Amino acid sequence: MKKALLFLFIMLCAISINAQTIYESFQSRKLNTTRDLKIRLPNNYDPSSNLKYPVIIVFDGDYLFEPVVGQVAFQTYFDKMPESIVVGLVQGKDRFYDSYHDEVTGLPIEFGARFYDFISTELIPHIDRNYKTSKFKVAVGHDLMANFMNAFLLKDDPIFKAYVNLSPDFKGDMDENISNRLKWLKEDVFYYMVTSSDDVAPLRNGILEANQKLNQVDNKALKYYFDDFEGHSHYTLVTGGLSQALDKIFELYKPISDREFKEDILTYEGTLDTYISKRYKKIEDLFGISKPISEDEFEKIVKAAEQRDDVASLEKIGKLANKQDPTTSYGTYYMALHAERIGKTKRAKKLYESALDLESTPHINKDLILLKVEGLAVAGDDKESDID
User: Fold this and answer.
1) How far apart are CA 135 and CA 138, in angstroms?
2) How buried is residue 137: exposed, middle or buried, by Cβ count under 10 Å (0-12/13-18/19+)?
3) Cβ distance 302 to 334 under 8 Å?
4) How far apart are CA 345 and CA 342, in angstroms?
5) Based on the domain organization, do 249 and 263 belong to the same domain?
6) Dist CA 54 CA 82 (whole Å)
7) What is the rounded distance in angstroms from the CA atom of residue 198 to the CA atom of residue 178?
8) How many CB atoms lie within 10 A of CB 155?
9) Which burial class, exposed, middle or buried, applies to 53 when counting CB atoms under 10 A from its CB (0-12, 13-18, 19+)?
10) Looking at residue 380, what is its pLDDT?
11) Which one of 215, 223, 367, 379 is most buried, counting C-beta atoms within 10 A?
12) Residue 289's pLDDT is what?
């Protein structure tokens, strides 16, 4: 019964992916032919909206597109990564020519060089013109196409900010070129690579050698991640690799973790409104998307402020929350909490009463606020007259 339900779920997901996928034939002047594309837009995609989305370019879209779309759907459902536009390149019999390279350098030449130009000067501009894209672009490739996509990293201003190498088949000096380039990159770049115990032996050996070189790169701009799975083949490592890669690449986007709470927030020097503002500004700068601070995140930094006995942060967090959304109660509630903590009872009572007129939230509802008002009334007003 369980197997039948699982099979049904997989079939429904496959139908959903196909139903929401745009199939397009793109005429390329560089290649003097048409190329088939698969394009998956976010569920709530609105071309008139100001929202912008990261773009994931999937080489070998014949077979890699659906696994990538499935993993993106899974992680966005749980808010572990931003909704993204996924573009799959159907390569088929052209794959050999697309990946054509110099045997010494490993870099694209002839047919491969034309395919490289097609990606950078035709495909990417086409996607940017027609869809709501951010500047954050991810390249995903398997074996030969993973080797090919690394060539984009060697440009002065790489168009991809993240590289997902699924059992890459490094050619010539490509691994050496990569490690040398990553030493000098100044802007953040994410680089993920995976192999497995049952991977193709020559590929696995080359990947392990490349991993040794990349581990020696000392550059804070580089976010390097490596996995070596046990028992997976050259093909079955793909799904696990995609899961791990997207999880690592978009780690900053995810809600505050227990580790971040303990190691970064509790020890932060300065008020916590500054910490959370910088965190979300980095999300915007890195991924090119504007993400509002959630009430859950505000609750976490308020909890941290209380654990730190950091009364000053409470008021500033409240002001930040009110600036983001003045219609909800939690910003005013935090400011009232600050006034109560410093003994300004009249001001606290007035602020709590003001919060009652605002929209309730899952954490701060009217019952909670009324308890605060009643508690202050029982305690009695202090002699303070300054309620400004």
Assistant:
1) 10
2) buried
3) yes
4) 8
5) no
6) 8
7) 25
8) 12
9) buried
10) 61
11) 223
12) 86
What is the number of structural domains in the chain? 2
User: Which of 207, 144, 140, 202 lies closest to 178 in space, CA to CA?
Assistant: 207
- How confident is the model at residue 120, as a pLDDT? 96
Contact (CB, 8 A) for 181 and 107 = no
Give 192-219 pLDDT, tens digit per residue: 999 999 999 999 999 999 999 999 999 9
Q: List, in sequence order, every residue forming a beta bridge with 39; answer none if it has no partner.
A: 22, 87
Q: Which pLDDT score is estimated for 382?
A: 47
Query: What are 362's two structure tokens?
Result: 């899952």
The CA distances from residue 17 to 22, 67, 80, 158, 265, in Å, are 10, 10, 19, 30, 39
Q: What are phi and psi of 195, to 5 degrees?
A: -140, -170
Q: Are residues 294 and 321 in the same domain?
A: yes
d(CA 313, CA 152): 44
Q: What's the pLDDT at 9?
A: 40
Instruction: State the average pLDDT for the chain.
Output: 91
DSSP 264: I
Residues in the chain: 388
pLDDT of residue 291: 86
CA distance to 150, 152, 177, 195, 295, per residue, from 182 (Å): 11, 12, 9, 20, 38
The predicted model scores a pTM of 0.86
- Could you tell me the residue range of the domain that residue 51 belongs to? 11-253
Side-chain half-sphere exposure of 258, counting CA atoms within 13 A: 0
Residue closest to 16 by CA, chosen among 85, 89, 66: 66
235 with 117, same domain: the answer is: yes
Residue 270: left if φ>0, alpha if ψ -120 to 50, beta else—which one? left
Regarding whether 307 and 235 lie in a shared domain, the answer is no
Can you list the residues of the chain whose pLDDT is less than 70?
1-19, 379-388
Q: Are residues 128 and 62 in the same domain?
A: yes
Residues in CB range of 231: below 8 A, 6 or more apart:
196, 197, 198
Q: Which of 201, 219, 253 is the last residue of a domain?
A: 253
